[in-house]
Every structure is written in structure tokens, then in C-alpha cells.
Write a structure and sequence with these properties.
Beta-Lactamase, 8 helices, 5 strands
């Protein structure tokens, strides 16, 4: 019996699986900024969207577009913050949810935002949280100029990309935190050395001077050390 001919659907699945092998690229960013840039570029190529963007949460009051494939995406994100509504914001608040907009012209959930984004040329949106079990990072958002542009496969692929992006972003943030900690230790050591030389005190006394100044003036220890190094003495002097 001759083998059954392959369908176009099978070919499409194979093509996507091949592209998924390339997902490792998002784990190779040197830092979080490069990581999110890789995420949006990869998303546009593998999901088949017109544009993609990443919103990151720093604090309750600070939400920013960390990467976008176009200025229209950045504006769509900014509008959500300005209008306090939209699928990307909801994805930030609900790490277990996925928000799909088949047609912005008929979806009733975010009327003010939808009206503005239609003017930017977008019709369909998928917003997926970027989160791990330990932390929320933001959301991955893909856009199309066509209504009903994203099918179940597109949504599934977006979820996979988001999971990899979350892990990669978490690793990048951890490395950046370690680098900052190492830099702070070096800076504090330099400041202690200057105080020891200037005042003829030992290392314990020098650290205590920095610590007490930090507490008294409500300034981070690293910032006190930076001021000592820059001014070659305590800021009060």
C-alpha cells in the first residue's frame, strides 16, 4: 500500500516545529533588554503576526514597553496605560489568563482602547502573561491588521513563546541582580578604603561609618559609597 500523501496541514506543523527549535535564541540574550528584543522579533517570525511587543511591570505605577516591532505597538501599549484598560494590562493582572481579541471593531471589553487602536490599523490581538511561579514580569502581545487573524495554533505557539520568554527573562534578571550586587560590593570596598586612609580607622569602623550614615540619611548603602568615592569623603563634609 502506498503511503498516504502528506497534507498542507502536516507541512505547516513540521515548519512550525522547525521554527520552535530556534526558540533557544531567546535564552541567549546578554541581558533583559536584549532578551525582550529577541522575543518580539522571534514572535513576529514564528507566529505570523504583523507586530509584537512586550510590556514589563516594574512597580504598580511603572509599566513600560520594553520592546516593540513598531511605533504603532508602542503607542497601543501607551494607550492602555493612559486609558487604564486593554488586554495587555489585564494579562499583567491575571498571570493565568490569555486574552484574545478576534476583532477590535466588535469586541466590547475595552471600548475606549479598541477605538484608538483601530486607528493604528490593528484588528486582532493576543496578550499572554510573562510570568513564572515566583514572579510576574509583564505580557507578550501580538497584533495583526486582519480580523480573526489568530487561530488556536497561533495562540498555542504564543503561549509556548511566552513560557520560554518568562524563563529567559527571569534568568537575565537574576544575572543582572548578581552583577549589581558584585558592583556594589566593589564600590563599598573602595569607599571603606578611602575612609580608612583618611581617618586612620580599621575596616569594621569604616563599614560602620557608612552604615550609620546610610541609616541616618535614609540613603542606600551603595549610594553612600558612591558619594564617598566621588567626593573622596563623607557627603556631609
Amino acid at each position: 500500500m502506498s503511503p498516504k500523501p502528506r497534507s498542507n496541514e502536516h507541512d505547516q506543523i513540521d515548519e512550525r516545529l522547525g521554527l520552535m527549535d530556534e526558540l533557544l535564541v531567546v535564552h541567549e540574550g546578554a541581558d533583559s533588554a536584549e532578551t525582550v528584543e529577541r522575543v518580539v522579533d522571534f514572535s513576529r517570525s514564528v507566529i505570523g503576526c504583523d507586530d509584537a511587543g512586550v510590556l514589563l511591570v516594574h512597580t504598580r505605577r511603572r509599566i513600560e514597553t520594553a520592546a516593540a516591532t513598531s511605533s504603532a505597538v508602542a503607542r497601543a501599549h501607551d494607550l492602555q496605560v493612559e486609558l487604564d484598560e486593554g488586554p495587555c494590562l489585564d494579562a499583567l493582572e491575571n498571570p493565568g489568563a490569555i486574552y484574545t481579541v478576534d476583532d477590535l471593531s466588535t469586541d466590547p471589553r475595552w471600548p475606549k482602547w479598541s477605538a484608538e487602536v483601530l486607528r493604528l490599523g490593528f484588528r486582532s490581538v493576543v496578550s499572554v502573561p510573562l510570568a513564572t511561579t515566583e514572579r510576574r514580569y509583564g505580557s507578550l502581545n501580538v497584533y495583526s491588521t486582519r480580523p480573526h487573524a489568530f487561530d488556536d495554533d497561533d495562540i498555542a505557539v504564543t503561549m509556548v513563546v511566552a513560557r520560554h520568554a518568562s524563563v529567559a527573562l527571569g534568568a537575565a534578571r537574576d544575572i543582572e541582580g548578581l552583577r549589581r550586587a558584585i558592583d556594589a560590593r566593589k564600590l563599598i570596598g573602595m569607599a571603606m578604603g578611602m575612609l580608612m586612609e583618611r581617618y586612620g580607622i580599621d575596616s569594621d569602623q569604616a563599614f560602620d561609618v557608612l552604615r550609620r550614615y546610610s541609616q541616618h540619611h535614609n540613603v542606600k548603602l551603595r549610594d553612600v559609597a558612591l558619594q564617598v568615592v566621588e567626593q573622596r569623603g563623607l557627603p556631609a563634609e
